């Protein structure tokens, strides 16, 4: 008995593991440590209560026989139909040959679907290879019976199963010797009888003899009544005599399902609780899965009838045992953090009733499905309620905006109409001359009257840009030559005399056009253009200008303003008030259209992401196939799956016997299997075994071994093998991951670390997990437009100062900001020598926040030297004092800084990573890493494809896709040349560099590339700056030498310009001396720029040379082992190995040659690289696998 955190006892999955005998770390809260010396080795003591008025020995024997018969029948039900019938027939023949009479053999009530291999369940006290992940929080108490199956008629499903017992007596046989009763069904598994179903019907359907259901029901009722009578009539004082040294006993001795029971606990014999003034019983049932009707804690009372004495101090609590129970799981606490949990093993008492452990485990899928459907129904109802509330709030906001618009109409009407007119003679006019709200009107414009009086190019036309009420809702409308282009001249008030001989005008005929009173001295030049426009219903004026190509007539910067008359009989006030409903409807329609458009974009984005994830999963399966594969390729829940394993390509080469041992749902499912011997191959090298996936399985888990007991294992390098299973009736519970970091894009990004924190967090969250980030609250956040809606979370005293914690959403992730009031995080992110102290304080304050706020994440993910202290501080200062649940994953982004801290974090982490496989290999031998290299994994970074998306990028002149890459990059190239003053003449390849200018980035090769690009007739663009003044001086000189019409140097940090460079350039150069991962080459490919890189670190893992890496590219990106046979070309760039100018020229010249010599092929390469998936889909999957591996450590 040790003081432990309550979750050691209350967490369902923890409890289940403890019941099976798996040992976990004992937990203790600060200030609740207790000595174990006087209690070590003491076993549970279960005392027998005084004999009551129970069943007689004969009745007990009869009941046990009935239960045995029922258990055997259930076993038959689980068998394949042919096996079940064979066993029944064999049993009948044996009895007949022996001359035995009595009941006919037990027959199955139904048949389950056939299983090639029978899967066992974990024994009650056996060991289990399961992850310690999972389970509910201790404070998430379930309602009475919520973990079990629902009951709709007052009696539980389990009671209904008990009612469906076979009748006694033997079956009559037909003349043919076969049983006359119904035979076992071969079409569907046996279904339990509905609550209240008559026993006779069950007996008839069962087809097997046995005691009548009514008799069993009466027996059960008698057993429950006897237990309740014993509880009500027992004498606590008498029962306690002679039990002074006992720890607990129960009345009745073995609790009965469906009856009451009393638990007596001797406080004097409990080391952790001996001096506690309060005791609480924490009980659940069936490996902590079934909630107690009384709740998860019951106050225990001292029974005055039992006197206190030395070693005698009994407290008691009454429980109502559910009918579904087969065992009680319990611990006792003082209600304030100290627990007696039987040395972390918890207390377990068997329950007598109709449900067995096997029955409970066998029905796990059914219970899980019921719970899942109930959860989904609740979520749907909650979503409907929230959606209705959100819709109402939006409509309320629409109404507010409409009222504001009406008020603006009234207040601004006069100002909007000031200077407006109905025409400007010879310049523009309206037809009809008077425009009213909601009408149609032609705007006619005389092109020759203003600055657009030059010849209109062939195929071109004028464009009318028109808005209303001071340029609200502007739009462009194409104009056409007016039929009245030869505009009428000034006219006389009198019509001209009729022509000689003209017939008189018919009645009602139009009068002839009036002739001018006199000819003007000069003819006015006119060429009228017109556009038909709709006058908005809330218009007081129309604002417009006219374009011809890039030239604009804006009325000498005053714009044109056309007057709109009020509707007939209306005042401004009455007109505006009458517009309220229409304005609101217009606002609502526009909002709903925007929401629909956004929803469609999100649907398409999600579809593309799911397709990329599916392809990544397919590639993983192909890459595993030489070691193992399954048939079907994607296992289905509730169906058979055959696992094939080739030990020659795994960790067990040369073995003649192979065994598989596994489970489901990342080892959290109650059913396990194995070790099962696999069938040796007749052809090839793959051993095989067939399993039946439970209905509630979403992962198939296994390892391989070469012996039934012990032996050598192939556990996939410690990750185990996990195959996704489709069609599960339940969903995988999410992980809770908390990143602790000092950078995060875009709010406090300095380098790639900030990108990784944001993008990895979003990608893992996108796969259904909960991700949060803890950051320092830097002073510059106060001026950040990216940090809106920050709210107070909590505060606490720590490290000699008050620490405030605030929170908000950043890029879809919940972020918490640590703000000490000692000014520690004023200024820049990195400040120099005092950074170690600042960030160590932050690391511990982050842990303190998690402890104080009661958060228990599954994974703490810390990054680089700046938060490396999280790993050590957690295990040495927090894990034993309440922050008990997390395990630690640590990522090294750059080995060049803080090697000592990196080594400490590697030691204290359960898994640690770096940002590419090649960089992991390069640093594996470092003295700080080597002692823990077995825990090191290289996982390449990805890019956030929502942020880096050329189709929607707002910094580009036009969006483009892989199919329009040529046109899109041409537009971007034209815009970039204007932006940085490059010559736009000729067809020149453009080479770009976006980089910090440091020695690591290969500055000498960057300088050489300027010369080589211009020498080959290309253009060069550089964006970046040097922190070292010497290097910056060298590049200033380079700019003076080469800057001009073919080379541009931008020494700044300019995010929008970087997007434009990636889109405009044909080639992006990354000649790093070392590169842990690198994002530049990934972004370049996303924008259709071909990378030219030096083969190092992540550059080698992501760029595959078009001439030299066809096999490697096909394997890594497509899972192909024969690129020729599979017709796969996944290469995507040009690479070199050396560090001198000649090495760079080898790759850069080949890229330029490809551009000049085969433009069509070069464009196809640009399309290919855009189609490749360099997102976080695959890296996020790898990290999730590492998170689960860390939880097992």
- The coarse overall form would be globular
Low-confidence stretches: 1-56, 101-209, 486-517
| Major β-sheet strand ordering | 32-33-34-31-30-35-36-37-38
Give me the secondary-structure category: alpha/beta
Instruction: Output mean pLDDT.
Output: 83
How much helix, percentage-wise, in residues? 25-40%
Distance between the termini: 24 Å
Determine the number of helices (DSSP H or I, runs of at least 4 residues). 27
**Beta-strand content:** 15-25%
Biggest β-sheet description: 9 strands, mixed
Number of strands: 44
How would you characterize the overall build of this protein?
With 1193 residues, this protein is of the alpha/beta class. Helix content is 32%, strand content 18%. It has a 9-stranded mixed β-sheet, with helices on both faces. Strands 4, 5, 6, 9, 10 and 11 form a 6-stranded antiparallel β-sheet that branches. A hairpin with a 2-residue loop joins strand 32 and strand 33. Helix 10 packs antiparallel against helix 11 and helix 25 packs across helix 26 (1159-1171). The model is unreliable at 1-56, 101-209 and 486-517 (pLDDT under 50). It catalyses: [(1->4)-alpha-D-glucosyl](n) + ADP-alpha-D-glucose = [(1->4)-alpha-D-glucosyl](n+1) + ADP + H(+). Pathway: Glycan biosynthesis; starch biosynthesis. Residues 388-419, 584-616 form a coiled coil. Residues 258-352, 438-565, 638-726 form the Carbohydrate binding module family domain.
């Amino acid at each position: 008995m040790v003081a432990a955190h309550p979750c050691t006892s209350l967490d369902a999955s923890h409890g289940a593991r403890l019941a099976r005998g798996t040992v976990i770390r004992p937990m203790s809260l600060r200030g609740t440590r207790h000595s174990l010396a006087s209690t070590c080795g003491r076993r549970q003591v279960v005392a027998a209560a005084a004999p009551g008025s129970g069943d007689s020995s004969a009745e007990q024997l009869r009941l046990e026989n009935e239960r045995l018969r029922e258990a055997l029948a259930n076993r038959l039900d689980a068998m394949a139909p042919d096996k079940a019938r064979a066993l029944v027939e064999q049993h009948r023949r044996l009895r007949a040959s022996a001359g035995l009479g009595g009941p006919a053999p037990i027959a199955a009530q139904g048949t389950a679907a056939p299983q090639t291999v029978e899967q066992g369940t974990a024994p009650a006290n056996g060991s289990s290879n399961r992850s310690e992940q999972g389970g509910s929080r201790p404070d998430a108490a379930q309602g009475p019976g919520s973990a079990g199956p629902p009951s709709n008629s007052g009696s539980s499903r389990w009671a209904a199963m008990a009612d469906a017992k076979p009748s006694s007596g033997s079956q009559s046989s037909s003349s043919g010797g076969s049983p006359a009763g119904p035979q076992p069904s071969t079409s569907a598994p046996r279904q339990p009888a509905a609550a209240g179903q008559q026993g006779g019907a069950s007996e008839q359907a069962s087809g097997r003899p046995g005691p009548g259901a009514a008799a069993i029901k009466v027996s059960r009722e008698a057993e429950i009544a006897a237990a309740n009578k014993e509880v009500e009539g027992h004498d606590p004082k008498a029962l306690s005599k002679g039990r002074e040294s006992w720890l607990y006993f129960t009345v009745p001795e073995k609790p009965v399902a469906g009856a009451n029971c009393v638990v007596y606990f001797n406080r004097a014999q409990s080391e952790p609780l001996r001096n506690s003034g309060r005791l609480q019983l924490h009980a659940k049932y069936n490996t902590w899965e079934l909630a107690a009707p009384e709740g998860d804690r019951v106050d225990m009372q001292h029974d005055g009838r039992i006197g206190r004495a030395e070693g005698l101090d009994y407290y008691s609590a009454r429980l109502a045992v559910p009918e579904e129970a087969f065992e009680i799981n319990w611990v006792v606490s003082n209600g304030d953090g100290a627990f007696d949990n039987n040395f972390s093993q918890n207390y377990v008492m068997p329950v007598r009733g109709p449900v067995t452990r096997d029955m409970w485990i066998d029905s796990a899928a059914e219970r899980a499905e019921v719970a899942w459907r109930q959860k989904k129904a609740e979520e749907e109802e909650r979503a409907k309620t929230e959606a209705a509330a959100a819709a109402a709030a939006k409509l309320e906001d629409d109404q507010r905006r409409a009222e504001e618009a009406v008020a603006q109409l009234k207040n601004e009407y006069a100002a909007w109409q000031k200077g407006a007119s109905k025409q400007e003679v010879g310049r523009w006019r309206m037809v009809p001359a008077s425009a009213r709200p909601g009408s149609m009107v032609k705007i006619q414009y005389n092109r020759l009257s203003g600055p657009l009086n030059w010849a209109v190019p062939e195929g071109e036309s004028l464009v009318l840009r028109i808005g209303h009420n001071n340029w609200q809702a502007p739009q462009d409308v194409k104009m056409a030559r007016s039929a009245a282009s030869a505009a009428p001249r000034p006219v006389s008030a009198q019509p001209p005399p009729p022509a000689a001989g003209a017939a008189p005008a018919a009645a009602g005929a139009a009068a002839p056009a009036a002739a001018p009173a006199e000819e003007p001295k000069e003819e006015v030049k006119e060429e009228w253009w017109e556009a038909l426009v709709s006058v908005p219903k809330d218009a007081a004026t129309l604002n417009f200008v006219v374009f011809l190509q890039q030239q604009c007539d804006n009325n000498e910067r005053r714009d044109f303003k056309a007057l709109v008359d009020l509707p007939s009989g209306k005042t401004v006030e009455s007109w505006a008030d009458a517009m309220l409903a229409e304005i609101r409807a217009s606002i609502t329609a526009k909002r709903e259209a925007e929401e629909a458009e956004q929803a469609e974009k999100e649907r398409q984005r999600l579809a593309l992401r799911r397709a990329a994830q599916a392809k990544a999963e397919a590639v993983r399966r192909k890459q595993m196939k030489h070691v193992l594969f399954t048939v079907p390729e994607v296992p289905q829940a509730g169906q058979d799956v055959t696992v094939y394993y080739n030990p020659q390509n795994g960790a067990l080469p040369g073995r003649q016997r192979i065994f598989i041992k596994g489970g489901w749902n990342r080892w959290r499912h109650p059913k396990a299997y194995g070790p099962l011997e696999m069938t040796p191959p007749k052809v090839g090298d793959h051993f095989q075994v067939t399993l039946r996936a439970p209905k509630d399985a979403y992962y198939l888990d296994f390892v391989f071994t070469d012996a039934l007991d012990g032996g050598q294992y192939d556990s996939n390098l410690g990750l185990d093998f996990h195959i996704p299973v489709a069609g599960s009736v339940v969903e995988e519970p999410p992980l809770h991951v908390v990143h602790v970091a000092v950078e995060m894009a875009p709010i406090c990004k300095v380098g790639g670390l900030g990108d990784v924190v944001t993008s990895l967090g979003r990608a893992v969250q996108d796969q259904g997990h909960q991700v949060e980030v803890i950051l320092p609250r830097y002073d510059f956040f106060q001026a950040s437009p990216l940090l809106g809606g920050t709210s107070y979370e909590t505060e606490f005293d720590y490290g000699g100062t008050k620490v405030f914690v605030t929170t908000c959403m950043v890029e879809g992730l919940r972020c918490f900001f640590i703000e000490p009031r000692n000014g520690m995080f004023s200024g820049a992110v990195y400040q120099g020598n005092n950074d170690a102290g600042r960030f160590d304080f932050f690391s511990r304050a982050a842990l303190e926040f998690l402890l104080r706020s009661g958060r228990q994440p599954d994974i703490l993910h810390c990054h680089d030297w700046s938060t490396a202290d999280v790993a050590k501080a957690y295990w040495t200062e927090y894990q034993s004092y309440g922050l008990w649940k997390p395990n630690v994953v640590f990522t090294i982004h750059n080995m060049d800084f803080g090697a000592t801290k990196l080594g400490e974090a590697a030691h204290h982490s359960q898994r640690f990573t770096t940002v590419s496989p090649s960089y992991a290999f390069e640093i594996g031998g470092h003295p700080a890493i080597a002692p823990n290299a077995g825990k090191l994994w290289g996982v390449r970074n990805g890019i956030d494809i929502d942020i880096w998306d050329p189709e929607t990028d707002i910094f580009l002149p036009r969006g483009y896709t892989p199919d329009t890459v040529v046109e899109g990059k041409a537009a971007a190239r034209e815009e970039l040349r204007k932006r940085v003053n490059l010559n736009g003449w000729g067809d020149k390849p453009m080479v770009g560099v976006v980089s910090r200018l440091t020695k690591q980035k290969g500055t000498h090769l960057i300088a050489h590339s300027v010369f080589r690009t211009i020498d080959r007739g290309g253009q060069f663009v550089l964006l970046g700056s040097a922190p070292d003044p010497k290097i910056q001086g060298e590049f200033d000189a380079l700019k003076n030498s080469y800057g001009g019409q073919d080379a541009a140097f931008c020494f700044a940090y300019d995010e929008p310009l970087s997007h434009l460079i990636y889109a405009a350039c044909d080639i992006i150069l990354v000649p790093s001396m070392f590169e842990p991962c690198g994002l530049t080459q990934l972004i370049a490919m996303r924008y259709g720029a071909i990378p030219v890189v030096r083969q190092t670190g992540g550059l080698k893992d992501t760029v595959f040379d078009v001439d030299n890496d066809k096999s490697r590219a096909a394997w890594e990106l497509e899972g192909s082992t024969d690129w020729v046979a599979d017709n796969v070309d996944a290469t995507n760039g040009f690479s070199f190995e050396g560090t001198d100018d000649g090495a760079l020229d080898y790759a850069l010249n080949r890229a330029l040659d490809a551009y000049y010599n085969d433009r069509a092929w070069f464009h196809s390469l640009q399309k290919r690289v855009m189609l490749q998936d360099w997102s976080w889909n695959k890296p996020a999957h790898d990290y999730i696998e590492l998170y689960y591996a860390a939880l097992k450590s």
